[in-house]
TrEMBL record:
One of its GO terms (biological process) is chemotaxis. It is found in: Cell membrane. GO terms for cellular component: bacterial-type flagellum; plasma membrane. This is Flagellar FliJ protein. The keyword Membrane applies. Pfam families: FliJ. The keyword S-adenosyl-L-methionine does not apply. It comes from Brevundimonas subvibrioides (strain ATCC 15264 / DSM 4735 / LMG 14903 / NBRC 16000 / CB 81). The lineage of its organism: Bacteria, Pseudomonadati, Pseudomonadota, Alphaproteobacteria, Caulobacterales. It comes from the Bacteria. It is a peripheral membrane protein. Its main location: membrane.
């Protein structure tokens, strides 16, 4: 493999690895956001149940639910943002992986072409030796 091909493949591998790490970070953040949303749902259910049992808690339920809706909206907004980031990261990773495969293909083709050329030179040398032997 030529030095330039090796360098391009190393750079492409690094880019793919970097994008894979970024995608893993986004996926982790997304899982945390989904968990936060589930916890918010559970908290609201607990507060509703408490309001059914306690009249004083029932009076404060509306205020709690107003704040809860704001927190839930923020969590859902974070989730939408993370979904978009994840999609972008997946697209970037797909593109980087495609570039890596192109470089690997070009390097392999170059290597095979060099082998073919070497084989042709060897065959030509043997043919020349055979012709000299026949002539001499």
């Amino acid at each position: 493999m030529t030095a330039w091909a090796h360098s391009l493949i190393r750079i492409s591998n690094y880019e793919v690895e970097t994008l894979q790490k970024r995608l893993a970070e986004i996926t982790s953040k997304k899982a945390s956001a989904e968990m936060r949303l589930a916890v918010l749902e559970a908290e609201a259910e607990v507060e509703r149940e408490r309001a059914r049992m306690d009249a004083e808690a029932g009076m404060m339920l509306q205020a709690y639910l107003a704040g809860w809706k704001a927190r839930k909206g923020a969590a859902e907004g974070d989730l939408v943002t993370l979904d978009a980031e994840e999609e972008g990261a997946r697209d970037a990773l797909t593109g980087a992986y495609s570039e890596l495969k192109k470089f690997e293909h070009v390097a392999e083709t170059t290597r095979l072409n060099a082998l073919i050329a070497a084989g042709k030179r060897e065959t030509a040398a043997f043919d020349e030796m055979g012709l000299r032997k026949r002539a001499g």
